[in-house]
Amino acid sequence: MRRSGELIQWNNKGGYGFVRDDTGRDYYVHISSIAGGRPRLGDSLEFATTTGRKGRLSAVDVTIASTNPTPRPATLREVKRPATGVSRYKLGLRTAAATLMTLLILWAIGTDRAPQWIGLLYAAMGAGSALLYRFDKLYALTGKYRVSETNLHVVDLCFGIIGGLAAQEVYRHKTVKPRFVATTWGIALLHTLGLAALAFGWLGALFGWVSG
Q1: Nearest Cα to 148, choosing from 157, 156, 136?
Q2: What pTM was estimated for this model as a whole?
């Protein structure tokens, strides 16, 4: 079954982007799948769908139904605008996870089970992670150089996960690709368990049992 949608992201240099159908679902599209030349932001496309090798939904056999004479510039408002088909409940889980980790940090510091620099480290790295997600979203919309997924994961792993989850929620970015989402939640689980062990004194009990 063929679908129709609007080209919402396009990297003209790389020849790829994303088309959003009438239900709000986004599909990856490559120039090799498009007949009739290069598209522009805002063009209406007709396409068939398939699942790519990385597990993401892709548009194939694409034709340009109508062109947009004036491509829309990317704005911060566009970055924050949620897709119609994106579940706010699923996005809300990221806020809940970030909030839980923040509370665990505050509890650990308040009960003198963790030094204050732990909180400062999470805050600084979280801010850095959030900025990377913001820049990557803007770059995706304007067709510029992208921040690699590996770099995003490394910063999240190195105490930036709270800011990373918050940025995914705010910018509706990196919330669809299965492998990226799974890795993000793995990092979040690792930090949550570590902070819980720190906040409730499990680490001290464990070390005491081992030494005893």
Answers
A1: 136
A2: 0.60
